[in-house]
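ok, trying the design again with the full structure, not the truncated one.
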């Protein structure tokens, strides 16, 4: 039976999703995907017909993998197309948590490092969610201080641990199909006093670079020659100005890969 969202209370609406209450179970909520895509902290904005369905498929397959692997997520089920049933938040944590295996994107400028630099272990950073300030990064030393000395610091420690755990699960999964998970940004919230992974994981959540050839040597300090950034499958295609049809094609390729996660 399809849910009639016109009769439900809208709790929140973001750039790519709408959250509705679930009157049948106040401990859960509905998350509905939209066809919108944005970049540059919302400055660039388009509607791509069909994107919501593709994102929903990718999100479903990734979260079901994470749940099978024991990661703590808000995901319950995907009861109909473009709709996700999730655990209701007590509060959202206004941070983006970014884990990086390979240097790409903004870190090349502010980190003054070469593209393709490999991080081992994975580097994890916290960014305050603020579009006008372009999500500034919080100082690692201060995060460590919060964890050790501030009330509630355990939430930061748990977000860091969860982000790295989830990164490694997904890195191994994509590697099965000749793709390197380059970096990933996730969001968290509190449910019944505990930190949970929330929101979505779709083509806008990470960078994915295919391997440049079979059996790449990924233990080098720089692995750029082992990977194929030009074949990227993620939202960078949109950021770099590709037409929306090409962007949708890339997102569909991601969904085709994550559909195979059911066997992992």
């Amino acid at each position: 039976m399809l849910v009639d969202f016109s009769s439900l209370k809208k709790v929140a609406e973001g750039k790519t999703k709408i959250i509705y209450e679930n009157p049948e179970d106040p401990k859960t909520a509905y998350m509905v995907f939209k066809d919108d895509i944005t970049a540059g902290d919302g400055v660039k904005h388009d509607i791509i017909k069909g994107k919501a369905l593709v994102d929903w498929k990718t999100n479903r397959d990734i979260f079901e993998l994470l749940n099978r692997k024991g990661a703590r997520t808000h995901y319950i089920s995907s009861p109909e197309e473009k709709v996700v049933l999730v655990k209701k938040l007590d509060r959202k944590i206004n941070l983006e948590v970014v884990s990086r295996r390979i240097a790409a994107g903004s870190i090349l400028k502010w980190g003054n490092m070469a593209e393709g630099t490999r991080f081992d272990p994975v580097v994890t950073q916290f960014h305050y969610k603020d579009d006008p300030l372009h999500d500034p990064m919080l100082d690692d030393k201060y995060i460590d201080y919060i964890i050790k000395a501030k009330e509630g610091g355990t939430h930061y420690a748990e977000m860091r641990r969860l982000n790295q755990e989830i990164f490694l699960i997904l890195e191994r999964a994509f590697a099965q199909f000749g793709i390197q998970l380059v970096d990933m940004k996730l969001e968290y919230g509190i449910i019944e006093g505990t930190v949970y992974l929330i929101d979505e994981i779709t083509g806008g959540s990470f960078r994915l670079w295919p391997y440049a050839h079979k059996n790449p040597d990924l233990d080098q300090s720089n692995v750029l020659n082992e990977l194929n950034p030009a074949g990227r499958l993620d939202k960078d295609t949109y950021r770099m100005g590709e037409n929306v049809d090409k962007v949708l094609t890339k997102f569909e390729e991601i969904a085709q890969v994550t559909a195979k996660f059911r066997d992992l």
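Keeping the full-length input from now on. The chain has two domains: 5-87, 91-255.
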